[in-house]
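To whoever is on call:

I kicked off a structure prediction for a single chain this morning and the downstream step that reads the tokens threw a length-mismatch warning. I double-checked the sequence; it's 168 residues and nothing unusual in it as far as I can see. Pasting both halves so you can look.
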Amino acid sequence: MHRMGGAYDAHRSRSIRRHGYRFAQALLRGLIGLLVATTAFGSPCDGVRRDLSPREQAQLAPIIQAHLNRQLAPSLGTEITLGPDDIMQRFSVGHWHVIYVSTHLTDEPFLFYRQDPRHSSGYALTWSGAATEDEEAATRAWVLQKVPGMPRKLAACFAYHVTKARDR
């Protein structure tokens, strides 16, 4: 086999380095663009209050238990008992709240409140079950139709959560 050597090898080496450098630049620009797009758009839950302290779980458990026993338990024919750990998540915007609970009797429901559950006589809507990733828009629209006045931000966060981020 005959090698060309000399000037050809030097040219080829510079060409490979130049193309490799351009590829690395393009890859880096793409990654930076992806990072900027992800940060710029964020999650539909950005700005939705999600924190829930153990103290709040303990305060909410007996109140939500009373709401469930008044609104859900009669159809089940049994009483519902909740402990603090059964208040699993909270989503809130303004005075609106969505509380995710474990009843140990049904699929875990999301309870929709027009105000803080501690100042409410009961929830406005309950939702449980599953939704697929492609049902986000339909879920958001359903919630807004069923609970008039609910902030769009909260409905969007709920729909995103149940379709794409259930365990986060």
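Update from on-call: the warning came from a stale cache, not from the record. Cleared it. Sanity check on the structure: The beta strands are 87-93, 96-101, 110-113, 125-127.
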